[in-house]
Amino acid sequence: MGMSVGSAAEDDVMVEMNTTPLIDVMLVLLIMFIITIPVQTHAVKMNMPVNSNNPPPPTPPEIVRIDVDFDGAITWNGELVTSRGDLQARLYRTGLMPDQPEVHLRPNKLVTYKHVAMVMAEAQRLGVTKIGIVGNEQFMN
To answer: What is the rounded distance in angstroms from the CA atom of residue 87 to the CA atom of residue 81?
Structure first.
């Protein structure tokens, strides 16, 4: 009985690519990238005021309170504003002041947005720069 030492199939060239070293290199690179990437911090950059040795202003700023009622009626520091022209004249005088007072706009919970937007647009158009909406906690519910 004879024994065959080799076959013709063993002399053929292997066509498949050996991917084991490739996978090893890719895993090492992945680990290197994970280690070297800095931790991302999610922060918002803000320009905060710098501490100064100046004393605070001696008097608190003047505040103008504008209320917009549910039907669109506007009051200026508790006094009813009768027309849009009257509101424009008051805002114009406020805008001309060198040290403008703070304008606190307080809309009623039931007022439509167009009345509040009209007051804000007029204030911006007439040069009022210190304006803010107060009383937002009433809109939470």
So the answer is: 6
Nearest 10 degrees: Cα torsion 84, 86, 92, 93:
-160
What is d(CA 126, CA 139) in angstroms, rounded to the nearest whole number?
28
Q: Are 38 and 48 in contact (CB under 8 A)?
A: no
CA atoms of 95 and 69, how far apart (whole Å): 23
Answer for the pair 68, 115: CB distance below 8 angstroms, yes or no: yes
Q: Which residue has the higher pLDDT, 118 or 46?
A: 118
Query: In the 8-state DSSP scheme, what is residue 77?
Result: T
The yes-or-no verdict on residue 7 having pLDDT over 90 is no
Domains and CATH numbers, the chain: 63-139 (3.30.420)
Strand runs labelled E in 4-112:
63-68, 74-76, 79-81, 102-107
Q: Give residue 68's pLDDT.
A: 93
Give φ, ψ of 80 to 5 degrees: -65, 130
Give me the sheet containing 79-81, strands edge to edge.
79-81, 74-76, 63-68, 102-107, 131-133
Global confidence as pTM:
0.56
Nearest to 109 by CA among 129, 139, 74: 139
